[in-house]
Structure formats: structure tokens, C-alpha cells
């Protein structure tokens, strides 16, 4: 008999706000206690903390009872990633709790729990660029096979052509690329059902059970690219003194 209490962190608070979906969940002994997920044009800066408070209240927990805080570390929306990371870091630091960051792409890939194919999570990054990577289930663990990357969609798809295994694409932005995927890969590639497209904090929490905690003060989100405003500023000031566009405070 498996002794679940010896294998699972007792109580986890998970925060996912890296894209247009906002999701918060609590997990105890590997089971979701409460979960709140909304999708659409949200204001994470004003809605995320109330969502956390609602989930905590629905769980009957006090914040000090949480053992571990999990957060989607990116990539995704610069603002969404930053807000989630800032709140998670603040809670972990003030409460003295473990902080476990998990790739936003891995959270998407984990939606497909029974797949044998190479799972390709996909997030649109504008101008036909994508955030993506490759994951595969091995012995019950979701393993990164292709590192998370920000890349032109066509360049990434051409790299995938060199691989021979079946492909399974997942993510809310699939409709933007589905025709090209079918054209290039044919029957070798499948797209998941829309019910599996949204990142969920309950899935994030399950990944954080065996995830590694990090130093709260050293943790920084993984944006994989600079914010558009910074890129535009650097282009406009190319040739001037080098340096950061702004000082980042994570």
C-alpha cells in the first residue's frame, strides 16, 4: 500500500496567471481541494489576489497553513507572468514557505495525462512567433524533451519535421496554427480537444508535488523574450549606450 502522506506535500497553493487564463487552486495530499479558473480579458493585477482569497476561504484554510506555493513561471504574457510571480514570491517570503516555480508550457502539456505521443504545448507570441517546447510521459513523470523556447512558428515546425514520432499539440492558440500543422505533419500530428486547452492551477499543483523549491530572493520568471516596449525602445536607440531599458524588479 502506498503511504500517500509520506509522498505528498501536505498543503499547496498554486497560482497560474501567465496568460489570459487566471487559475488558483489548493491541493492537499495530492487532491484538489478548491479551484477557481477564469478565461478571457482579465485584469490579473486587480483580480488575482481576490481569487486567491476566495479559494483559500473555500478551502477553509488560513494562509499560514500552506506548506508550499506553486507558481507558473512563464513563458507567456509579460504582465501576467510578472504579477503571478510577484504575488507568489511575496507570499512565500512573508510566510516563510517553499516556492516551487513550474513552466507554464509544462502545465499545458500536463493537461494530456494519458498521451504516448510527444506533447507540444503552444502559446501564441504574436507576429507568427510562439512559445513552445516538447514533453513526454516517461514512467509516470512528465519529462522535458524539447526545451521551452520563443521562436518563429515556421522555424519550430520545420525542426519538428526532423522527428519521426507522433505529435500532440495542446493550447488555446491552436486555431491560429492548426491549418499549417495539418499541412506539414498530416496524420502524424493531432490537436487536443478544447477542454484540454486551458492551463489549470490544479494541474500546476500536481506538478509542484515533486517539484524543487527555489530561493525566493533569487527566483526570476522565465519570459524567454523581452517585453515589446523594451524591444521597440532598443531598436529606436540602437547604437546608443548599451544598458537595460528599465530596471526590472521581480
Question: What are the key terms here?
Answer:
250 residues; alpha/beta; Nucleotidyltransferase, domain 5; five-stranded mixed beta sheet; 10 strands; 31% helix
What does this protein look like?
- Helices cover 31% and strands 28% of the residues.
- The chain is an alpha/beta fold and 250 residues long.
- The chain folds into 2 domains: 128 residues, ATPase, nucleotide binding domain (Nucleotidyltransferase, domain 5, 2-Layer Sandwich); 85 residues, Nucleotidyltransferase, domain 5.
- The strands form 2 sheets. A 5-stranded mixed sheet has the order 3-2-1-4-5, sandwiched between helices.
- Helix 2 crosses helix 3.
CATH fold-level label of the largest domain: Nucleotidyltransferase, domain 5
Q: What's the total number of strands?
A: 10
The parts where pLDDT drops under 50 for at least 5 residues are 1-6, 242-250
Shape: globular
CATH superfamily of the largest domain: ATPase, nucleotide binding domain
* pLDDT averaged over residues: 90
Oligomer classification: single chain
Q: What summary fits the major beta sheet?
A: 5 strands, mixed
- Termini separation comes to 43 Å
Strand order of the largest sheet: 3-2-1-4-5
Number of domains: 2
Percent of sequence in beta strands: 25-35%
Give the number of helices.
8
Query: What string, H for helix and E for strand, traces the elements in order?
Result: HEEEHEHEHEEEHEHEHH
> What is the rounded Rg?
19 Å
CATH C-level class of the largest domain is Alpha Beta
Structural class, by secondary structure, is alpha/beta
Amino acid at each position: 500500500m502506498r503511504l500517500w502522506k509520506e509522498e505528498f506535500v501536505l498543503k499547496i497553493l498554486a497560482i497560474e496567471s501567465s496568460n489570459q487564463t487566471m487559475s488558483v487552486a489548493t491541493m492537499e495530499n495530492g487532491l484538489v481541494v478548491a479551484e477557481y479558473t477564469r478565461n478571457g480579458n482579465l485584469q490579473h493585477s486587480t483580480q488575482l489576489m481576490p481569487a486567491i482569497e476566495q479559494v483559500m476561504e473555500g478551502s477553509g484554510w488560513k494562509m499560514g497553513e500552506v506548506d508550499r506555493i506553486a507558481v507558473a513561471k512563464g513563458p507567456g504574457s509579460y504582465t501576467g507572468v510578472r504579477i503571478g510571480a510577484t504575488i507568489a514570491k511575496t507570499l512565500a517570503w512573508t510566510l516563510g514557505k517553499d516556492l516551487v516555480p513550474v513552466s507554464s508550457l509544462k502545465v499545458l502539456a500536463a493537461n494530456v495525462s494519458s498521451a504516448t505521443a510527444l506533447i507540444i504545448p503552444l502559446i501564441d507570441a504574436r507576429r507568427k512567433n510562439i512559445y513552445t517546447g516538447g514533453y513526454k510521459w516517461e514512467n509516470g513523470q512528465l519529462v522535458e524533451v524539447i526545451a521551452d523556447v520563443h521562436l518563429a512558428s515556421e522555424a519550430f515546425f520545420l525542426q519538428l519535421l526532423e522527428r519521426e514520432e507522433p505529435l500532440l499539440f495542446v493550447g488555446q492558440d491552436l486555431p491560429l496554427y492548426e491549418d499549417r500543422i495539418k499541412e506539414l505533419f498530416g496524420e502524424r500530428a493531432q490537436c487536443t480537444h478544447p477542454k484540454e486547452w486551458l492551463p489549470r492551477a490544479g494541474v500546476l499543483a500536481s506538478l509542484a508535488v515533486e517539484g524543487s523549491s527555489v530561493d525566493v530572493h533569487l527566483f526570476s520568471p522565465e519570459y524567454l523574450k523581452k517585453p515589446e516596449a523594451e524591444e521597440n525602445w532598443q531598436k529606436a536607440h540602437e547604437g546608443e549606450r548599451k544598458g537595460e531599458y528599465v530596471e526590472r524588479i521581480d
